[in-house]
C-alpha cells in the first residue's frame, strides 16, 4: 500500500510538472521584474508629443536609444530639422555649470519654445537659449501668456473678490470703496463660480450650502514623524448622504441689488459653468439631477431670474455625465450630445423651438468632446464603430459641416488614432497603432486627412527579437450569442503551443469607459504575469462603455453583473481555439479599485469557473464608497440591490483562494469601509483568505512588492508550487 501511495504521489507530481513545465521560477520572476525597463530600453519612437510653436510648426523630443534628439517640424514646407545644435548647447551649458554635459543626452526639463528661444530647466536652474545667436543665459521661468482674469469685469473697472465666504466687488484701480454683494452666510455657506455679464453690469454666482459632510476615518500606523499611530479623517460623502446644494443669484453692479434665480436648489454633482448670452440678457447652464436620469439646459433671464428649460434630457436608466457636451452657437442654436437614439450622437436645438436636427446618426458613437469652428462652419470629432468590419473600439478622426453634411473620415487606416491638432486646426499629428502593431506618426491635413509628411515610425525590432510577443486580439460572442465581445490574450516570451498554461483574467469593469488596450503596448502587469507561465486575458464585457446604450445599460443598478456571462463565454471560446489555455484548474482573476470589487465578486458569484483571485483596493460595498461613483451606476435613492450586490453581504458564498490587498491611507476607496468590512464578513462566515495591508500607502498600489504578491498567489494556487523556486 505504501509503495502504491508513493507511486501515485510521484505520478501526481510528474503530472503537475509536465503541465506546469517548471514555471514560477526565480529566473522567471527576475525576467518579469526587469521587463518594463528592458522594454523601454529596446523600443524607440513610441510617442511623439507635438509642442506647437505656431499654426504650422511644432517640435518634439525623441529617444533613439543612443541619443535623444530635439526636432522641429515645419508643416508648411514639409521639412524636419534639429531644434538646436546639441553640441553647441552642451558646450554652453558646460561653460555655465563647470561640469561635463553629454550632447547626446541633454538633461533638459520643462522645455518651452517661445520667441525663437528655448527655455528649460537643467542643473537646478532655469535657462534661455537663443536659437538665432546660440547664446545661453540663466533666466526666470517664462510666464505663460495670461488672458483676462475671469474675476475682472469686461470693462476693466471692477474685480470680484471672495472673502471669508462672502462676495465682494472692488474697483480694479484700487480707488474707491468695495461693494459687498453678499456677506458670509450664517451656516457655512460660501459663494462660488461668480461670472460677469458681457456689459459688466451683472454678476451671477452660486451660493453653496453645506450638506452633512460626514467624515471617513483611517489610522496611519507608521507616520513619518513619530512612533505613535495617527488618526486621520476627511470629508467623504456616501450614497444617500445629504450633499452640498447650490442656488444661483444675480447681482446688479454698482447698485448691489440681488435677484434670486427661480431655478431652485441644485443638490447634486458640481457647480455648473455659466454661459452668458452675447447681449447679456440671459445666462445658461446645464443641471444634472441627482440619480443621473435627468439633465436640463436652463436659461435664466437677468431681468427677473425667471427660468426656462431649453433641453430636457431624460433616461429610464442613466445619463452618463462624462459624455455630456454642450456648445452654444450664438443665442439661438445649441449643439448637444445624446444617447437618445441608443448611440451617442450630436444634435442641434433651437433655443425657442426645441430639437431641430440630428447631425450624426448610425450604430456608432461619438468619443470625447467635439470641436466647433463657427467661422469656418466645421465640426471636428472623434468616433468609434463607424467603419465597417473593424474593431468597434478603434478611434478615428472626422470632420463635417455645421449642419452635419459632408462628413469625412480623416484617418482611414484600420488602427486606433490619436490626434494632436495645430491651434487653427489646419493640420494635426496623427499617431496610429494597434495592440500588436507599433505606431506610425504622420502629419495630416485637417480638412482632407491627406498625409502631408511622415514624422516617425516606432522601432520595436530589438524588443521583438527577444521573443517577446505582443498581445493578440480575440473576438467571441457574448451571452446573447449575437454581440461581439472583444478582448486580448497575452502569452509568455517562451510560449510553447504544445504545452498547457493556466489562464488568469485581468478585470476592470468600470462602466465609465472601455478598458481593453487598443494601442501598441510593450509591457504591463499582465505581460509580467504571463512571463511566469500563464496566459493572461483582458476583456470588455457588457456593461462597459463605448458601444451602444443597450450594451452599456447592462450595468445599470447592476455592477454585480460585471460582464461575467460574456467573459466566461469569451474565455471558453478562446480555449476551444487555443487548446494551450488550460481551464481544468479553474481561471484566475485579479483587478484593482473597481476591479478589486469585480475580482472578489468573481469568486462569490462564479466560483465554479474562477478559482483564484487577487483584489487590490476594492470598493467591496457600494454603500460605503463615494457618492458620485456609486449613485451613478447603482442609482438613487438606494434600493435593496445595493445589499444584494455587496461583497460583504455575499461573503458566505466564497469559493476558491482570495488575496485582499489594500493601502491603509487610501482616501479614494477607504480600507475600513471596503476591505475590512469584507474581512469581518469573511471571518464571521468562517472563510479562509489571504490579506496584505500596506502601511502608509494610498490608492496607488503599483510597485514590485505588490506585483510579486499577486504573482505568488497565482503561482501557488494555480500551479500548486512554492513561488520563485519552481519546486512542488
Q: What is the architecture of the domain at 16-41 and 465-719 at the second tier of CATH?
A: 3-Layer(aba) Sandwich
Mean pLDDT: 93
Terminal Cα span: 23 Å
Under the CATH scheme, which class of the domain at 16-41 and 465-719? Answer: Alpha Beta
Strand content: 25-35%
Q: Tally the helices.
A: 13
Report the CATH topology name of the domain at 16-41 and 465-719: Rossmann fold
Overall spatial form: globular
**CATH level 4 superfamily of the domain at 16-41 and 465-719:** Alpha/Beta hydrolase fold, catalytic domain
Helix-and-strand structural type: alpha+beta
Q: Which sheet architecture does the biggest sheet show? A: 9 strands, mixed
Helix share, percent = 10-25%
Low-pLDDT runs: 1-20
**How many individual β-strands?**
42
Whole-number radius of gyration? 29 Å
What does this 3D model show about the protein?
There is one protein chain. The protein has 728 residues and is α+β, with helices and mostly antiparallel strands. Among the domains are: 16-41 and 465-719, Rossmann fold; 51-138, no CATH class. 17% of the residues lie in helices and 34% in strands. The strands form 10 sheets. Strands 34, 35, 36, 37, 38, 39, 40, 41 and 42 form a 9-stranded mixed beta sheet that branches. The chain has a 4-stranded antiparallel beta sheet with strand order 1-2-3-4, with no helix packed on it. It has a 4-stranded antiparallel beta sheet with strand order 5-6-7-8, covered by helices on one side. A hairpin with a 5-residue loop joins strand 32 (437-445) and strand 33. The relative contact order is 0.09. The model is unreliable at 1-20 (pLDDT under 50).
